[in-house]
Write a structure and sequence with these properties.
The chain is mainly alpha-helical. The protein has 17 helices and eight strands. The chain has helices at about 30-40, 55-60, 70-75, 90-100, 110-125, 135-150, 155-165, 170-180, 195-200, 210-225, 230-240, 255-265, 265-275, 280, 295-305, 310-320, 325-330; strands spanning about 30, 65, 70, 80, 125, 130, 185, 190. Strand 2 and strand 3 (about 70) form a beta hairpin.
Length: about 325
């Protein structure tokens, strides 16, 4: 598949176990592994610390970006608080707020060092158990491409499936199931991994225990409906982890939709060629203009709001599945 220049999105994991294990592309990493790698990259002796080493470690753990700073949920997993300490989160946040107050915004090395010091001194002791590293944008993109190729789904189908939450046909639901399995977030046997879900999206606006209870209730309700594996995976993703419940993008739909948009070249021209969908998709065309364009959760909602009858859209798209799309596009043009 051809990639449009300039778009990326969310979860990478430990290189040591990626690919060969049942977790597929998941990466697990410890603070100690990140420290060892950074000392090699920055060429410093094991007994010394480079000026920007903590930031390097946080980047390798996928818990830091220079634009957004520290991801507190995934980074906190690398420290074990005292079971009797009920104030470690507030104390850590106070440490960060106080120490960062006078640091210039461009001094990202100092910011990274302060983040490590506050978590080490106020949050808890570093743990040696590998933790989930949120997936990199490139790996998310690769996962979607792999699944689309495996299921023989072309670019236009991929875009249209994304616009309908992947819940419009057996083929679209199989695609989303493949994606979440390859991301290491889901299995048919155990369902979604709630710890990974919580970490991947950077936490939710509710307590983790409440998040787990709500998700478990939703999952059990869907399991009682005796759905096939692909439909169950899709409905759990859409209903139990819906858009807007987290502070940023959600782990699957919020990650998949922007990447889907970046994978499909010439969407506007292709849509114009599809006469069968013209009346339904024409309102979307102005919002798809631009390089790069991205279907983030907010834009995706606006797109769906413009479609008066999403079920009719889904039915029209499903009709196209009866054969390869390229000949149909050529014939309609």
């Amino acid at each position: 598949m051809e990639l449009l220049q300039g778009f990326l999105v969310v979860l990478l994991l430990v290189g040591l176990s990626a690919g060969a294990s049942p977790d597929h592309k998941i990466v697990l990493k410890t603070l100690q592994q990140a420290e060892y790698e950074c000392k090699q990259i920055l060429r410093v002796p094991s007994s010394e610390e480079a000026p920007c080493e903590p930031r390097c470690e946080e980047i390798l753990l996928r818990t830091w970006t220079d634009c957004n700073g520290l991801g507190s949920i995934p980074y906190g997993r690398h420290f074990q608080p005292d079971p009797t300490d009920s104030d470690f989160i507030n104390r850590t946040q106070h440490c960060l707020d106080s120490a960062l107050a006078g640091v210039p915004g461009h001094d990202v090395c100092c910011q990274g060092r302060i983040a490590f010091q506050c978590y080490r001194d106020q949050y808890g002791n570093p743990v040696r158990v590998p933790q989930l590293a949120p997936m990199s944008d490139i790996l998310v993109r690769s996962t979607i491409e792999d699944c689309a190729r495996l299921l023989q789904i072309d670019d236009l189908e991929l875009m249209l499936y994304g616009l309908t939450h992947f819940d419009m046909s057996a083929k679209s639901r199989s695609l989303l199931r493949c994606i979440v399995i390859r991301q290491g977030l889901y299995s048919d046997e155990h369902g979604p991994d709630l710890d990974r879900m919580f970490v991947q999206c950077g936490g939710y606006d509710i307590d983790e225990q409440v998040f787990r209870e709500n998700a478990e209730y939703c999952i059990e309700s869907l399991r009682s409906q005796c759905l096939d594996n692909a439909t169950l995976a899709t409905r759990i993703t859409n209903y139990c982890f819906p858009p807007g419940v987290g502070p940023g993008t959600i782990p699957l739909i919020g990650t998949v939709l922007p990447t889907v948009g970046s994978l499909v070249g010439g969407v506007l021209g292709t849509v114009r060629g599809l006469k069968i969908l013209d009346s339904l998709l024409k309102p979307l065309a102005p919002l798809l203009i631009g390089l790069p364009y991205s279907l983030n959760p907010g834009l995706q909602k606006n797109l769906l709001d413009l479609v008066d009858d999403p079920h009719a859209l889904a039915a029209a798209i499903a009709a196209l599945e009866k054969g390869p799309l390229d000949p149909k596009i050529a014939a309609l043009g």
